[in-house]
Fold each of these.
Amino acid sequence: SSLKATGIDFLKSQNTRQHHTDAYNIKNLVVRRGHPFQVLVSLNRELRPADKLSLRFGIGENPMKNRGSLMSLKPEREDFNGWKISLVKKGGKECLLSVTSSPNAPVGKYNLHVKTGTNIYKPENGVIYLLFNPWCEDDVVYMANEAEKNEYVLNDTGYIYVGSAYSIYNRPWNFGQFEDSILDACMYLLDKSKLSLTERRDPANVSRAMSALVNANDDSGVVLGSWSGNYIGGTSPMDWIGSVTILQQYYKTKKPVKYGQCWVFAGVLNTVMRCLGVPCRCVSTFDSAHDTEENLTVDIYLNEKGEKLNISFDSVWNFHVWNDAWMKRTDLPNGFGGWQAIDSTPQEQSQGRFQCGPCPVKAVKEGDVYLPYDSKFVYAEVNADRVYWLVKKVNGKDKYFKIATETQDIGKNISTKAVGQNKREDITREYKYPEGSKEERMSMQRAYSFIRPSGLMPRSGYASTVQGLGGNTQPLVPNEPATKTGLHIEIKNTEPLHPGNPLEMAITVKVSTPGNWTIDLTGSCQLQYYTGKVQANLGTTKETFNLEGPSEMQIPLKIAPDAYMKTLSSMEDEVLILVTAIAEVRETKDKLTKETSMRFQYPPITVQMPETARLYNDFTCAFIFKNKLNVTLENCKLLVEGLGIFKMTTFDQGDIMPGRIMKSEIICTPTRLGERKIVAKLISNQIKGISTEKGIIITE
């Protein structure tokens, strides 16, 4: 009788363990390219030497051998398009086959059929998901270090660093790349990207396409960005605690999810890349330039009270979050492999779409900003100069006076979560040489030769050209960094910045040169979004005093709660406190500007639960919050999620008066082993960003 396949066992538990894919919550087999996996084929009779048996792997709508989308693997003829198959053993009516896909095979969903003579057997759940493989030395995403793979590929939780350079804090984020339908959502995005099969072999193409598809601009991608402060008809960007709900909703509705800001785009892109098998991390840069002119300067305009004005096209964001994906760049000269910056926040178009990267981090550091993709843009985000202008009314017209140039202010404290530890790692040195070093100057000269028109020298001590607002170009000599009097300004808070309390800050002015100096100080306090947009003016101070150098003077700046609480309660976004100071020495005309952003400080949420629990055995988790502030927190919502423990849950808590304690409990059933994390976030009208997390070990 003719040979027929009657069944196929995908040996899922053994294969997924070996391929590090056992965490995916999906009934199909998920494997990584370039590594062998086994399948057990059942037949209607014993296999004879003359029998013809082949496994056929097809990808796409209409798989064909000559297009490379159909691999027909015969045990006796090993290699086909870099794929290999061998007969491990046969006995009775079964044969065990080992299949190794090519380490540069297109990633995606493959249909597996068994062909015996003219018979074709199509198994149920015969779709196999093939991913990138950081464990395979021949795959371009290969990563040698085991701990790094555990973090950047397999860790489904993490932190995104936000706040300001002065006060960085972590926002726990659930990536959840293994949760229900997340892999299918990523496969849907791959299909939607219209990448050809050849393009799907290379993570550079895939990561670029995903940076475009994670934002909704121009391709109805996953998340719709909004910085409007009005999030009716959607979820406020502050209210997400992970990517899972977002990707599940997108996959179900195929419509963009409302709303995101930079950390949401970065969190979702991180999930997508890790899910597809590309090592990836979220990267936060503090004081990040959004330079619309590609001229490497960001102009900040202040009025005579020292208040920042919202009139500039370019801006400095208190922080900006993007991603680094790990790969060899086969399209570039040697030496530019490793981390590549990708950014899905829709800022500027690149080749006609809102996409950014992959840009080699090494190219940013060395100033090789001609390399694809978007390296000039990324370079400017971490290397621009900040130029301060004073806007004065002269005969009823606005006139612009340049007061200072800050050359070491942009691109500070570049941060990501440390490998295997719940703490921040500073990776600024991967992006930049030390400020002021010889290497930094050489890198900058290199970058300027590609960005600036020829003939303009880099910023260090030479005249540079800046576009004034009026459109006329005037040559400007940057201030000599050392003023004649050694003028220096420091800004800090003298009391904790709790909402509902007076904001108590101090501006310290120092002079280091001997002599009697008269100093005019202007200071202002404002509320601003993290994008640098001013939301409210809270107060100003003007002082004139004498200093006998070397000495210092501390000027207090105090803002009453009434001046800001109404604004704070009416805003949907988290805001920062911005203090700007301008000091001028009358005798020498030395001028100096300094600005510092600070965040409000909040009481904590505590999580009570056991340290360990057993698989499928219930335990109780309690969330406790005491309102230690002097204000009632209105419309409080507690959002909680524990991957592999319980689904995203929201508790409405109403108003929490000062001194009151809120307690919520949830019954948890762990469904996955190992260390699991529970994330909680409390939001109200007055405060947006209290979050916490706690780990628990789940055992058999």
Amino acid sequence: WSLPNAERYALQYADGRQTYITESNRGEIKNGSILRLATSPDQEAERLYSGIQSNNVDVKTDSLKKLASLSQDVTFAQEFINRNGLKQIFYIVEEGNDTGEILAHTLKAFMELMEHDFVSWETLSAPFIEKIVSYVNMNAMDASVQQLSLSILENMVPSSRLLFERVKKEVTVDRLLTHLQVTNAQLQLKAMALLIALLLAATDAERRDMMEYLREKNIRQFIHKNIIHSSEPLGDEMAHYLYVLQSVSLNLHECRMRTSMDPYSQEQRELLQSLRQAAFESESEAPAGNFSTERRRSLCAKEFRKLGFMNNSNPAEDLRRAPPGLLALDNMVYFSRHTPNAYSRFVLENSSREDKHECPFARSSIQLTLILCEILHVGEPCSETAQAFYPMFFGQDHFFEELFCICIQLVNKTWKEMRATQEDFDKVLQVVREQITRTLSLKPTSLELFKTRVNALNYSEILKLRQTERLHQEETLAVPVLELRERLKPELLELIRQQRLLRLCEGTLFRKISSRRRQDKLWYCRLSPNHKVLHYGDVEEGVHSPPIESLTEKIPVADMKALLIGKECPHTKEKSSGKQNKDVLELAFSIVYDVEEYCLNFVAPTRYEFCLWTDGLNVLLGKEMTSERTQTDLDVLLSMELKLRLLDLENISIPDTPPPVPKPPSNLNFCYDFSHAEQ
């Protein structure tokens, strides 16, 4: 456009993030993008650098507002930082006594400039950090300033150990909890973000102390009541922070999970003995003193065997496997102390069963603890994007142990439902794993609800679900397979029609029912091989398949008008009651034929024959087959045909939509011209 001083101008996107067009990003311009002519980034940076130093409050405010907006652009940010613009921002924060709008725009601009990673967070001055901390710790402070201050601190924490310690020291957990309790959702979110950043940057010991302190302050109950069950829907960011909090909390069990039992540890041996005593104390207490050491040892071994330890002479061996290590022992002890009745019932109930049918408590507990660790991802690092937290986790102290108490009783229940023996141990635990994961996927809001649902999902329900899923797996419900199914239907219905007509050609023996309802005479009816005439006639007892010539009566198929079923038949309209009448109703059908509309009345010997005959007669009349047998036969034939057709597609996933048809070639001159070759 031959503008004078062209270097003072630049193109900029008019919509969305108003990024400057540079040599590096010009290739990304899409058709239809609207660009506008603007002052070049260096000119704009120069102007705003002067503007934010202005003594005129309005000019300063506008410049800071524009700076906060433009700083999202990397080209502008670089120009502004090159002019030592950050120093000016530090000056406004450190020296200025501005609050409200000016301060909010300054902090926003600072955040945007730091996003580009041109400057390290570690270069921040002590007075600047002090100011930011003071904004967070002040009670009467603009909410937008507090949000931005919390964001700045959240970004500082992971960048260096020194900054982490400083923030942790100056912004107390209590202060963050105060911010969590405000009604402003954004402020609540930023406070949670800083809390999570502190937890993730802490060492294991610091994290344990912080979590213990949060537990004392009842943060779980607060989150459960005021965040998860608040009137506002939960945002993705908050869901992620709750997932991290849950993950950090569950990972506190990792140390015990990865520690094997030490058979020489007095404390661990006492925990193990407490399990035995809680189950059998009334039996073993009294006579224990009179027994020799050998006798006492054999009694203990017997009791440990009843408790379900595989190595009953040295049960500590069972707990050497890590994971689940000592966590399994902790869970068993928690169960025995907090639900003593359920614990005693479990152990005693299985002690009285036959050896092979008893459900081993200790072995089940060890395996169940491992399953729960896997399902809840104990010991795994937090995902950076996941949002999958369990609402019930925040409604319960000692969540892992309480969940174990519910699930170990579920193991016993499922064991009984499956009538399991020791050989079925792995199979039972597999079903239990499925029961737990399926119930957790429903996101129950409390452990009580989890308990109700997981107990309702019994073994027979699991079998039904597996059956349904197997059908899905066989892909009989995939869209292309359903289309194939529809295409196969006419062919298979024709097959059923042929079978019905063949059955009519073979014929059936019927009983005549007189007006007195006495089944006295027999008669036989069959269709001629050319499907044009129905032959029927009386037969003697004991004759099963009379020749077609012996059946004297005939009805041409062309004369047949209609088929009547059940109550519509003339021979069922005679008044009568009782069970026999109901049976006759279900098996009765009539053919209306000839101009005079005579009726030939049938009562089929069985429901199966009724279905075959009514279907066959409907085929002859050119109507649809309506019996329930048709649907059953069609389903069986379709299922078999589909399985045969899909045999070659084993382990190949069928796409829902057909692949696109390729475009026609640019020219069709690819046929070899033989005439030239001959010349």
Amino acid sequence: QEKSCRLSAALLGEGSEVSQEQLYELLKYAALGKSHSAAQPSWCRVYHQRHLAGVVVVVLHEMSQLHFYRFYLQFKHLRRVFRHRFTLTPSANFPVSLYGEGTNLKPQSTPQGLTSTSSECMTKSSDLQCDPIIQRYGEKKQGLTSYTLTLEEQKKNDYPIEGSPGCKGYISTECDQQRTDSSPLFGLDCEMCLTAKGNEVTRVSLVDARGQCLLNELVKPESTVVNYRTRFSGITKKMLLPVKTRLSDIQTRLKKMLPHDAVLVGHSLNSDLQALEMIHPSVIDTSLLFARSEGRRFKLKFLAKAVLGKEIQCEQKLGHDPTEDARAALELAQFFIEQGPTKVAELNLEMLLTAEKLAEVSQNKAVLQPQGCGFQEQLSEPPPSSKPCFLDCLQVTGQKPLLLGRQGLDSSGLCQSNLSTSNKQILQRALEDVPLSKFSIIQFSLGSDSSPSHLHAGLHEKVRSKLTDMLTIYAGPFEENFCLKSVKKEFGRCGPMQSLTVVTETFQPYVCIQYEVLEAAQLAVESLNGAEVAGSCIKVQRPVTAAMLDCNVLIQELELDVENEGVIYVAGLKKSVTEADLQQEFSQLKDLETLFLPKDLQSGKHRNCCFLKFQKPQSAVDAVEAINGWTMKGGELRSRNALAPGHLWRWIWQMNHSSGKQGKHIFYEKMEQLSDSEQDLRKKVKKLDHHVKKLYRSLQNNTLCVVLFPGMDSTHGSQSGLGLMGIKDDEGRSAC
């Protein structure tokens, strides 16, 4: 049975822009995969890449994130189909930034006659002889027994050894040393806390050779805990309170689970065995397997990224996941055994680590870019000849990408280029040719005169004004001498406020509140309209303007937006609440996947709200019902469905703070007519959405589709782009 491809992206709440280089990472890995030394992208993950039917990139020329949200209701197909959305760094010349300068697409020939690109280099065989991995294991592939630690190596690296003075009372797994190259591998990892006795196990994970989790158990320490090391272990006092399992129980279970010839794999496995107080004769230690000079060791997090293309031990997570770490160590050992020392040495891990450290030191000057099996370091704008050439990379596979559009996108002859005079013609050619190509770039355009600078500026102001209105509520009437502090406290429970002003032009006073997130304003309208606040029964409503007449429709569509599926908003958090508190408080909620605590982009302090993402939509619905009315550190929580994904939340914040205006609101204003040019643009946008819908429906299942609003970076100003992406599944929408 054909495996279904999946795409995951940790984009909830982050709101950071995806660069052209990061987009290039994704497209390169999706098109080439590990078989051609492409690494998993650093910001998202493609599962079962080799089962992808193809890659289709749709570029909406001269359009930006601004266009998507100004014509949000018109983009009916795009917003309902694609599960992943991200802000894209704008580019002055997007097609060139996507696949390199046309004049530089010619492949260079290496002395060996192999195709090479300007961004990838071959490791010379003479250099390999000096590599610590080759010096230790030689160049030829060997069986797993060649990589298990000898007794002397175990003693040298502080492994528990039978009969050693420090191992009194330790339990043997009773496995023998009669291992063979076909002996089963098991990945092992433990999390420890500091007790009066020293390091004691609090969690144990064991995975088999297929990566299946056989054991993932919390363990109650024997001695008093001094430090839970929650930041690294993820263990809290509350988690261990109900636990009855002791170390002796785990030792008994491990003895039963491991066959007589089992080989344990781990990263610095000696620490795990010492904490388990167990002795095992056959071990592969990945911190020693991927040898370095002078006794240094690579970290597991780095090896997983550089070798496997996997992100583990992410900062967003509370502590390490021992199952994830055990699986990573196991896969690293399997990679080493299957590929052999030479292939591993060719990864040039020392160079990759140096590039990574340089990037960390100079964050604003360096770009860390997974490229092939390694990273490309750019400390300044590279010369044109060193720009990554995506089309050149594809040529390695014998593929000839398809480029369709109104402009000459490629001058290298590496593509099947076809120029058309209209979007309709482009669509027709795409329906015929895309199924025949593994990689396609389709460029639609609004037309050269559809987005002049004055119209673009007008769009920006209208979007900013409408977002401001949607973030704003009016509440009242109040008594003449009402308590403003009580009003601020009550409405503050709905979420972070940007401003609160008293309206005195009316017979009785009202308040005008502008929130920082859409969910807060909607929560105020839903929960406080008709409520008694500061001694008055009040009405809560948004400004009544021509642009706001469809506000309820827009709110409803935002709730149905596929990217908000399974995401809820929680407000009413106290300032003293930390992310660890939230992890602990919400751990009882079923199917909770991700927690995001927004921060003020200027002060860095967290807001009084958070977002929770659940694996199943129904679990999110249940969570909203459960959370409403909860108290946490004295604060009453309020919750509702999410309306704005992370990238939009950040964009709203930037628009409100860059405009220098608070936005003047009145209850009624003269109705404005849409200009002819904007009416025409609305029609074109609707037609474009229909074109993309038709193209998408024609794609094979398991096709990665990326729709790009490239943004603008010109003399008229800069506007961020927007990306939508997903892998088409059997139901005709993008798979998670």
